[in-house]
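user: At home tonight, take the chain set out below, taking as long as you need, and be ready to discuss the fold:
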Amino acid sequence: MSSFPVTRLRRLRRTSGIRNLVRETRLDLDDFVMPLFVGTRLGVRAVILFGIPDEKDEEGSGAYDDDGIIQRALRALDGSELVLLTDVCLCEYTSHGHCGVIRNGEVDNDETLELIARTAVTHVEAGADAVCPSDMMDGRVAAIRDELPETPIIAYSAKYASAFYGPFREAAESAPAFGDRRGYQMDPGNVREALRECDQDVAEGADVLMIKPALPYLDVIRAARERFDLPLAAYNVSGEYAMVKAAAAKGFLDERQAALESLTAIKRAGADLVVSYWTKELATWL
């Protein structure tokens, strides 16, 4: 084996042209999805829509209303060149902020499945290209697949009970009114359980697996990449984005460099697709 001074790894780092030539992981705008609270963005290829309804109720009926906010947005965007993905969950539409129907103080898994599947159907009928169930109810992928045999399902397969969702919950006004979501979202300490969740979603008919959040769970992304051949997505969530924004505003770091480094890390870990709030900026950076 060659060693110093024959082997000098810095030779391939001397100029930007050489560095670009040998770069192992590249960022491509086609691999990024922009989360939107209903709107459009210049240069972005794909968006995932989240709804903020005017009214909420115990059953989250706005989620599966044929004339709901997401359904109207999809019809308005019909004919655009955007790939239209939709978040399928009830938390933004329930008065209690949980992701399903509450019975006896807890989220009722099986009763929620019917409403999740119903929501997905209304999204597709309104023009969604793919649906993304994020509720973490057991069996939700199968429930949707039964109703939509031809529709791509991007499953939030390993969605952790994370502190990094804070800014999103504030924007979507979807924080739980009582308790938390640890009864159905994953424990941050578990990796093997994440792979079991992915196994189950594959068996139920998911087309794409997603890990959420991204940066604190790069090891989970890598583990899923090594185990599954399906396309793998990662959600670079609002808290990850907000931390860099806040640090950049204080002058502690360069936002562009930190963002590109973070997104490269997510891709390097094995994600094929990345949902990120930096997608709009990425369109200009790339």
About this structure: Residues 25-285 form a domain with the TIM Barrel fold (CATH 3.20.20.70). Residues 109-126 form the longest helix (18 residues).
